[in-house]
Amino acid sequence: MIVILHARSQRATAEQINRDLDAAFRNAVPIALADASTPGRWPSDVSWDDLLLIVYDGVPFPDPGNDYIQDYLDARNGVGPLLPVALDSLMRRPPSSASSVKALEFDAAAGGPDGRLAKRTGAILGLRLQQRDTRIFISYRASDGTQIAQQIEAHLNKLGYPVWRDEARELDGETKILPGSPVQSEIDNALEGASVVLLLDTPQAPHSPWIKHEVDTANSQLLPILPLCFRSRTETKKGPRFRSLFDLQRWVSLTLNDSPAAPPLTDAELALIVTEMEAYVCEIFRRKCRVPFLVEKEFVSRSYTWSILDARLLMCESVRSHSVRLSTRVLSHCSIFEQVHGPAMNVFSNFLTRTERPNHALYIYDGELIPEPELKEIIESSPADSGVVILHHQELAALIESNFTTFTP
Known about the structure:
By secondary structure, the chain is α/β, with parallel strands linked by helices. The protein has helices spanning 11-24, 63-74, 116-129, 142-158, 182-192, 209-220, 243-246, 267-300, 342-353, 372-381, 396-401; strands at 2-6, 31-35, 51-56, 82-86, 104-105, 135-139, 163-165, 194-201, 225-231, 252-255, 307-310, 315-321, 327-334, 360-365, 388-392.
């Protein structure tokens, strides 16, 4: 539930924000407006996906509005997500009850379904969608990434984002990770509670077995990874030093600061990192809203049931009964990724081995159609007995209508 708390004079702006968010998230998130002068009560039970947007201008914020914010935080043990939205660039300090969170300035680039406000909202909700601890996991090599990691952590905390910063310990130079070791257990637990990984791809990062473990574990959990690629001004290579992350074709290029006196990142670079992270997480959130909705619609309209077996991994089941003894059972994975399908395919294949074998297994993706050579490569690299059909969600209707007649490219 999103509540847009607004000054009475800003009702029209709050209504426009409501329309923008509805368009951005396909009405998948309930939204309510609350007048800060007479806000009433929170319109639903406390939930993991609650978010309070506070729209304010240069006029003093009403006391009932500040009380509403404090009640919202108290009901969530002080950690309910807030997003202050400043309509006056000269008055950017949030109302007192939300003063610990940096405001988002509502300028020309903030409005609209694809504006900065929708992306910040989508990022906050996207981090919470997996119902984990919603933390941003910062992965880095201590020898050349500590100061950068500390600066990013402080900046994200200022924006209200919870962060888990890996201390990147090397255990007396040990180069082999021992299963069940204290450090591995700590890392695995932190990744289990994370929703996105920011990888500081510094020159020393590829030499850390712990970072490789974090990348492999994140891939196995379908956690999005955003590499922050730090290279010197003289380097000509671009992109991540980790091959599996290079295939993502998504990273942030940054220049190593060789001045020991200055902070490693400028304000502009910090803003770039946040913008790219929010755009990525928001994109995934919108896919998690859109793809299962479209897939469910196709199945239900053809007399199939629909249920989600694993909300975190988006594993879904559809069943159609033809008679007392005859039914068709379909397991589907609604992928959130566009360009890299290998890790998700492996997770789906592993999931299929742990559940009752269905009549059909569908890997359903969004975005651009996978080119035929790449599709063939994905199929050939999949387990021989997986029997998974890979298709775009736009192809699903024809597949169901054909009674699951398939072909191999």
